[in-house]
Amino acid sequence: MALAIIVAVAIKVVGVILITAMLIVPAAAARPLSRTPEQMAMAAVAIGVLSAVLGLDLAYTFDTPAGPSIVCVAAVAFLCTNILRILRTRSGL
């Protein structure tokens, strides 16, 4: 119920595409870091919060829109976690 309310309010604020990205990208970034769904959920929350804080800071610093800045930070987190996954599989860890 809370997620539905947040999504409904956020759609008016940042738009459909950005809110979809804000919901999906942190979870996708958390997947390579976790082994269980619970770990993935906690990592996704951490990545989402970090993306929001850093994205808002970047938006303030560089005078850019907040929504796209948050999504860009989340996308960088997604790239970093997938690079980490590739490096782990190549090294055999």
TrEMBL record:
It is a multi-pass membrane protein. Its main location: membrane. InterPro entries: ABC_BtuC-like, ABC_TroCD. SUPFAM superfamilies: ABC transporter involved in vitamin B12 uptake, BtuC. Keywords: Cell membrane, Ion transport, Membrane, Transmembrane, Transmembrane helix, Transport, Zinc, Zinc transport. It is found in: Cell membrane. The chain crosses the membrane at residues 6-29, 41-60, 66-87. It holds the Pfam family ABC-3. Belongs to the ABC-3 integral membrane protein family. Involved in the high-affinity zinc uptake transport system. PANTHER family: ABC-TRANSPORTER METAL-BINDING PROTEIN (PTHR30477), HIGH-AFFINITY ZINC UPTAKE SYSTEM MEMBRANE PROTEIN ZNUB (PTHR30477:SF23). This is High-affinity zinc uptake system membrane protein ZnuB. It comes from Pelagibacterium flavum.
